[in-house]
Design goal:
single chain, mainly beta, Trefoil (Acidic Fibroblast Growth Factor, subunit A), Tachylectin-2, Chain A, 2 domains, 35 strands
Length: about 475
């Protein structure tokens, strides 16, 4: 437990009482309440002019929260999102952990620390804008206000809680430094008609991702340089130029064995007004892998820039950095789910400014015999995790199947229809293929109502081809065709 300053000398305490009478009550009378937008903020003390941060940028549970001069580090940035009950969660952009009142303390001077977010009342904050343009933060559990203890002005001074009295040590300015989107769009239909799209044109495909932009459908897939396609109706598909005609030089720093500009399992999403494309560089059967990122002002513009490394793994890791999927949670914040075989499917928060991961690594699903290609969507109170289980890449001998589970928390646990945890080989089957189409998998989902995947055509020597269907949902909230 971190120590904190909670006692004042007689003169300081008397000064606080006087200021409380002269200014605090006036602020209470004239205060106004405004909602703030979800986003990334810095929080600056009116009294000291310094920013709230996690001390030393610590990633640990229980790390102290104090003030420091502005340094533009992520430890001084906070992802603030409004909860359904009107309170806010405050997540540090370095550690991925939540600001909370330590140990359910109700006392004046109680310490403020960070802890893994669990949504309890010690981690919920009422944020109110006062008529002087500053904000107060009141903890739901204690009812007390975020306070710069002892009126300190030095770097490292402690942040605690105190009964509201309206002094400058309880007023904070907020600067928005990063945006997040509104929650994901859910246009899905309950118990709609089965609708497998009758595709034509360029449909030889493996590991597809799909997007829609200003009347045009876009698809990218495993292949040289991130091979692309486009369609005006989602049915007839045309070839598009690869994003990287030549391999990027830094790829071989992480995956020396990668050759022939071979790029795997891209993931396309639009976020904060930009098109983001995650992709994998690896070699078959290896954990020496890397997930990279490229982005453009729009897919149609084609002004792709190299945003570099996202995450990498080596043979020393027990998971594999391939098959990325960008997930937007119910509050609009981004996450990255990825992984293949080994210890299974992983999840990390994504910094909405850099679109790179931060914070803890969470395990979502594991299975002997193969699991990969994760996709997560949010629908009506649940996160749904879709994975490809079994073996791919063997033509009609492929055993891929698409399996799923759901959770009320993006971090899991994900349970299938029988209540089995996907970390314990659970997973209900959506698609296991048939005699004409073997090994469906490598899926991606647009919004909550369009699912794209590949399957191996038994009538064409097991050639992998594109399949698109409307994704429907039953009355119990489970996915179906």
């Amino acid at each position: 437990m971190h120590t904190h300053k909670s006692f004042f000398g007689g003169e300081m305490l008397q000064a606080r009482k006087i200021i409380k009478v002269l200014s605090g009550l006036l602020c209470l009378i004239s205060s106004q309440v405004f909602a703030i937008d979800n986003g990334v903020y810095t929080i600056k003390s009116k009294h000291s002019g310094k920013l709230i941060e996690v001390g030393s940028g610590s990633p640990e549970d229980g790390a102290n929260i104090n003030q420091w001069s502005s340094n533009n580090e992520d430890a001084q940035k906070w992802l603030i999102t409004k909860l359904n009950n009107g309170y806010y969660s405050i997540i540090n952009l370095s550690s991925g952990k939540a600001m909370e009142v330590y140990n359910f303390d109700n006392s004046d001077g109680g310490n403020i620390t960070q802890w893994e977010y669990w949504g309890g009342i010690t981690q919920q904050w009422d944020i109110n804008e006062q008529n002087n343009g500053y904000f107060t933060f009141t903890n739901r559990h204690s009812g007390k206000t975020l306070d710069l203890l002892n009126f300190e002005t030095v770097d490292g001074a402690n942040i605690g809680q105190w009964t509201y009295w309206g002094g400058d040590s309880q007023f904070w300015s907020m600067q928005k430094v990063g945006s997040i989107e509104s929650g994901p769009w859910d246009p899905s239909t309950t118990n709609g008609s089965t609708n497998h799209w009758a595709l034509t044109g360029n449909i030889v495909t493996h590991d597809p991702t799909i997007g829609y932009e200003n009347g045009t459908w876009w698809l990218f897939q495993t292949g040289p340089g991130i091979y692309g396609k486009w369609s005006s109706d989602g049915v007839s598909w045309n070839e598009a130029s690869p994003i990287f005609p030549n391999p990027l030089s830094w790829w071989t720093n992480y995956v020396p064995g990668n050759t022939n500009n071979d790029v795997w399992a891209p993931e396309l999403k639009h976020y904060n007004g930009r098109a983001w494309l995650y992709y994998s560089i690896s070699t078959f059967g290896s954990r020496q892998s890397v997930i990279g990122l490229t982005s453009a002002s729009s897919v149609a513009a084609g002004d792709w820039r190299d945003d570099g490394l996202v995450v990498n793994t080596t043979t020393n890791d027990d998971y594999n950095a391939i098959d990325p999927d960008l997930v937007i949670d119910k509050d609009g914040a981004p996450w990255l789910v990825f992984g293949s075989w080994n210890s299974g499917i992983k999840l990390k928060r994504i910094n909405p400014i850099t679109m790179k991961p931060y914070g803890s690594l969470y395990s979502l699903a594991a299975r002997s015999g193969g699991i990969e290609a994760p996709t997560i969507v949010y629908r009506q109170g649940y996160y749904y995790l879709f994975t490809s289980i079994g073996k791919c890449c063997a033509g009609i001998d492929s055993t891929y199947q698409i399996a799923y589970g759901r959770s009320t928390d993006i971090r899991g646990p994900y349970l299938d229809k029988n209540g089995t945890d996907m970390l314990n080989s659970g997973g209900s089957i959506l698609d296991s293929g048939n005699s004409a189409w073997a090994g469906p998998g490598g899926q991606d989902i647009l919004n909550t109502d369009v699912i794209v995947r590949h399957a191996y055509d038994a009538s064409d020597n097991g050639t992998p081809k594109l399949m698109i269907s409307t994704l429907n949902w039953d009355s119990s909230g489970w996915p179906k065709y």
